[in-house]
Every structure is written in C-alpha cells, then in structure tokens.
Design brief:
Radius of gyration: 23 Å
CATH topology: Helix Hairpins
Keywords: Chaperone, Coiled coil
Largest sheet: 2 strands, antiparallel
Helix content: over 70%
Strand order of the largest sheet: 1-2
Protein name: Prefoldin beta-like
Oligomer: single chain
Order of helices and strands: HEEHH
Number of helices: 3
Pfam family, one: Prefoldin_2
InterPro entries: PFD2, PFD_beta-like, Prefoldin
Organism: Dillenia turbinata
Length: 149
C-alpha cells in the first residue's frame, strides 16, 4: 500500500496515517452535525420568541439582548430583526447540510479507496436500539413542555 500513489502527493504512506485521516474526516462530520444541531436549537428559540411577541401590540415595550447589553425597544422594531436572524440561521443550516453531504461523500470515497469497514460489537448493536427508543421519548417530551408555556 505504501508504494501506491495517484500522483497528487496526498496519499497516506501507512495504515496509521490512513486511520488518522479517516478519524479526522469523521471528526469533521461530527462537528458539522453538532453545529447544525446548535443552530436548529437557536432557530427553535427564535420561533418561540416570534410566536410569543407577534400577537402583542406593536407599540408595546420589549427588551433585546445584543452583545451582553439589554436594550429597550418596541415589538414593532424587534420583530423584523428576529425574523431576519431566523432566516439567516436557516440559510446557514442549509449550507451546513450541503457541506455535510459533501463531507459524507468524501468519507464514502475514502472508505472505498482504502477498503475501510466499521465493525460493531454485539453490545454496540444492542445499545443502538435503546438509543433510538430514548431519543424518540425525548422528542415526545419537547412538545408537551412547549404547550404548557
């Protein structure tokens, strides 16, 4: 494997380098997933704020935190800004999803090129079933809490 080279100078020399590159690619995917999740939570918070202040009188006072400073504004001034911020976040999430798909394809090519296969132990497979069930329960709890507010 060390003697193979496609001429681009980026081919790893040994198995350890291949493993490190693969781990790096997987880490990048996890970072993108984390950022997408974080931004989706922010979009959700923006939606809650919009839902809370939209039906109120536009001349009513409200407060907005900008860079650690609390500013007094009216709903009429704040609502368009919150809408723009939410749309901006959604655009960033869209770009990150595209980058994620590109990175997944890159990892798939890397796996195919170096014949990488992930083996899961029996314990890991059993744990996955529990994780899926647990995450489904977490989703059900979210809306119930949101309806109480």
């Amino acid at each position: 494997m060390a003697s193979k080279s496609s001429g681009d100078g980026k081919d790893p020399i040994n198995e350890q380098m291949i493993a490190n590159m693969y781990a790096s690619l997987r880490s990048e995917i996890n970072q993108i997933y984390s950022k997408i999740t974080e931004l989706e939570m922010e979009v959700s918070e923006h939606s809650l704020v919009i839902g809370a202040i939209q039906p109120l009188d536009p001349s009513r006072r409200c407060y907005r935190m900008i860079g650690g400073v609390l500013l007094e504004r009216t709903i009429k001034e704040v609502l368009p800004t919150v809408h723009r911020n939410k749309e901006g976040l959604e655009e960033v999430i869209s770009r990150l999803n595209k980058a994620l798909e590109k990175k997944k394809k890159e990892v798939a090519k890397f796996e195919a090129k170096y014949k990488i296969r992930i083996r899961k132990a029996d314990n890991d497979v059993k744990d996955e079933g529990g994780q899926k069930e647990g995450s489904a329960q977490g989703v059900l709890v979210g809306p119930t809490v949101g309806n109480d507010q």
